[in-house]
Amino acid sequence: MGPWAPTLESLNARPLPAWYDQAKFGIFIHWGLWAIPAFAARLGSISDAFKTDYDRAVAMTPYTEWYANAIKVPGTPSAEFHAKTYGAAPYEAFREPFIEGLKAWDPAAWAESFRNAGALYVVLVTKHHDGFCLWPSGVRNPKQTGWSTTRDIVGELAAAVRAQGMRFGVYYSGGIDWTFNRRPILTLADFMGSLPGGRYPAYAEAQTRELIERYEPSVLWNDIAWPTDQARLNALFADYYNAVPEGVVNDRWRAADLASLALRLKPARRALDARIKKRMLESPDAVQGIIPPPVPHSDFRTPEYARFPDIQAKKWEATRGMSHSFGFNRNDTEDDYASSETLISDFIDGVAKNGNLLLNVGPMADGTIPEPQARRLKAFGDWLGAHGEAIYGSQPWVRAEAVTDQGMPVRFTVKSGDLYLTLLGRPTGERILIRDLTLAGEVRRLDSGAPVRLVQAGPDLALDFARPLDGAFAPVMRIRGAVASGLG
Known about the structure:
By secondary structure, this protein is α/β, with parallel strands linked by helices.
């Protein structure tokens, strides 16, 4: 027994473990059988797929990890690619070549690269929607024999990550498992209504408890929904917290209820699809990424390919791939990847608004991290190596942002009484003018330690640099003894 009881009152009284708030930057890993075909439709973002091809959008998303569903839908690019490349071979045929490719995988090299990037925690996809498990589970899948690795990928990576001083977490697809529900999924209502019943709730709970007992993950990251009722879910949370006192859970644990069960019926799905399509037609720009709705209990929220526009009282974690997919896509070019500067700017923006970033890596089938992804990890490591003081362990200030007279965004964080001001761009010259800001204090640049003088110019603040700015990306100023006013 431990201090946490299986009630919402007890669970919601538990404070957020400090390590998670302080860590700021984690690595997500989507790696599985889909890395062999490494293919998805190219319609842009997941939001674009739902806007432009709603009636089969789930099979048209850019997510390569959804390949097993996409090839079930005739006429999709994935189905055509599969037929041309693999003939009539089923998705299950990828199991043996994936397991064979594990001989080249080096978990220690992964962990070192993630630590060098500045990450303080790593979350591995242990079972995605295809149901394939990356650990030799002792819980038998009654629908698919031998549907797991024989090598303990989860355990080996957990040990390697912890040896580098990082925390280790696990992702589990609790709401979707295509070995239990094999019908093709086309629309958002199909997706929401595909939560398996029967023996699946007991299976998913047993596997999650196995992951907790074997690996003691610091993050328990569920996806889509959860197949048991809220009472059983509360008991799972309490047992997890009592077993892993500093563990955290995300916000995608929507328990099975009457509404979700009703969506198993086709008329209910059709009615929901009609409402969603009408809303998209009326507000085509309203859909940008995915923000899961609040649930009765979570430690943090998880916008996907999306961010919150202002400071949030509740902790959150932006999650995204470096390109439009989480899994590796063989067709991605440099133009498909967000630039390092965009990713780092969004990261800084999120931290200023009480968020973390869980940045995804999608390895190739043999475990190689693709060069465009490795290059972006290095860019994070380089920037955090010089400016991490403004990020790790920081908190939001009374305001998150400002702008210079040239339109360059400015973000703020605070730590130990110091204020950190980050210019999101490549500024040059001896003076920067920030609109509508009043500050006083001792200022130095984090990268060089060079002094900066603050000069009030009416409602605006000028930063005069003893050493002119040279165009380096996202320089940070530390303001000691900051006194501020004019915070409108």
